[in-house]
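Retro notes (design track)

What went well: tokenization of the new backbones is finally stable.
What didn't: we kept losing track of which sequence belonged to which structure.
Fix going forward: every design gets posted as structure first, then sequence, in one message. First example under the new rule, 333 residues:
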């Protein structure tokens, strides 16, 4: 074939190939555009039907709340104890001391302290003595590390363990603890009823649960003053001391969204607790709600796979089988 004819044929083939490619991609784009509205509708429907909850005054998907709360406490962990003293004028120590007195904990008991940086753990460790055990648990690694380091600096070790755990699915056996406390932590839990049920499951028959939490002031005047303090002064202090006004604004909002005294009491009774009573402190700004496990009968509550930690305060070899089988996260750096 002459070279000129060959070049013409090659050029024509290239043009045809390019035209085919253009037709192919045009058809593909048309199909994608036709499918896009349906896909968008599916995503919209999924978002519409996803369960929501509150994050402070914001409405968020349930799947998002845990991460958002974690970010808040990662941010405030380092200055948490200082801010507690500033925010309460040191009165939080009296609230916690009163909770300890209500617990009835004595030598040889096993205690679970959920949330916080170890104020209650330190006192309980002294009460239960070397034959007892105290577990400090928190879902937030930063808060748990602050509590662990603080307790070790104070020489609290030997009868204390540190476990990163979700309050809604506690990784402990049934009927394991004589007493459980959760101080200023329940309001941050997404499913409070699930957390209360999980605590009931791991509590021994006759054991005590004590929930120390911000609540609703009984006086209208005190309530107005408290609102001004919470939404104006508290974020300002957070900005000055911790360089984080937003996290402390969330903490104020979360307090307002937490159930009041009677509602929390009814929730605990609904789950199965008995002899539920509450004690108002500082005019109802804080309440300590106590309850007992009436018997060994347990309602079903989820138990998480043990994926948590035991720090240097642990007793060697003292780890339940369900924890030995799971992945461990150690806080001994």
């Amino acid at each position: 074939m002459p070279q000129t004819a060959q070049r013409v044929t090659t050029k024509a083939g290239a043009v045809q190939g390019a035209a085919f490619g253009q037709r192919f991609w045009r058809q593909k784009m048309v199909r994608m555009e036709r499918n896009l509205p349906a896909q968008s509708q599916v995503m919209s429907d999924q978002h519409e039907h996803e369960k929501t909850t509150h994050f402070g005054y914001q409405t968020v998907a349930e799947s998002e709340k845990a991460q958002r709360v974690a970010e808040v406490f990662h941010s405030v962990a380092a200055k948490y104890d200082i801010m507690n003293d500033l925010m309460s004028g040191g009165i939080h120590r009296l609230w916690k001391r009163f909770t300890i007195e209500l617990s009835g904990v004595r030598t040889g008991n096993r205690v679970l302290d959920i949330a916080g940086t170890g104020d209650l753990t330190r006192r309980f460790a002294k009460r239960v003595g070397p034959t007892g055990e105290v577990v400090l648990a928190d879902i937030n690694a930063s808060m748990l590390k602050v509590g662990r380091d603080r307790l070790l600096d104070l020489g609290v070790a030997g009868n204390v363990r540190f476990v990163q755990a979700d309050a809604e699915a506690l990784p402990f056996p049934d009927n394991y603890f004589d007493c459980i406390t959760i101080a200023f932590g329940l309001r941050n839990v997404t499913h409070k009823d699930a957390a209360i049920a999980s605590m009931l499951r791991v509590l021994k028959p006759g054991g005590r649960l004590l929930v120390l939490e911000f609540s609703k002031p009984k006086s209208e005047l005190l309530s107005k003053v408290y609102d001004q303090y919470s939404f104006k002064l508290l974020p300002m202090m957070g900005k000055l001391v911790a360089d984080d006004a937003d996290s402390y604004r969330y903490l104020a909002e979360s307090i307002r969204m937490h159930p009041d005294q009677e509602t929390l009491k009814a929730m605990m009774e609904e789950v199965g607790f008995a002899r539920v009573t509450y004690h108002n402190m500082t005019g109802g700004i804080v309440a300590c709600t106590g309850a007992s496990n009436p018997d060994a009968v347990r309602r079903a509550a989820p138990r998480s796979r043990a994926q948590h930690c035991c720090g240097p305060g642990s007793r060697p070899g003292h780890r339940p089988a369900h924890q030995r089988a799971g992945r461990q996260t150690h806080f001994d750096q």
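Added context from the reviewer: The two ends are 80 Å apart (CA to CA).
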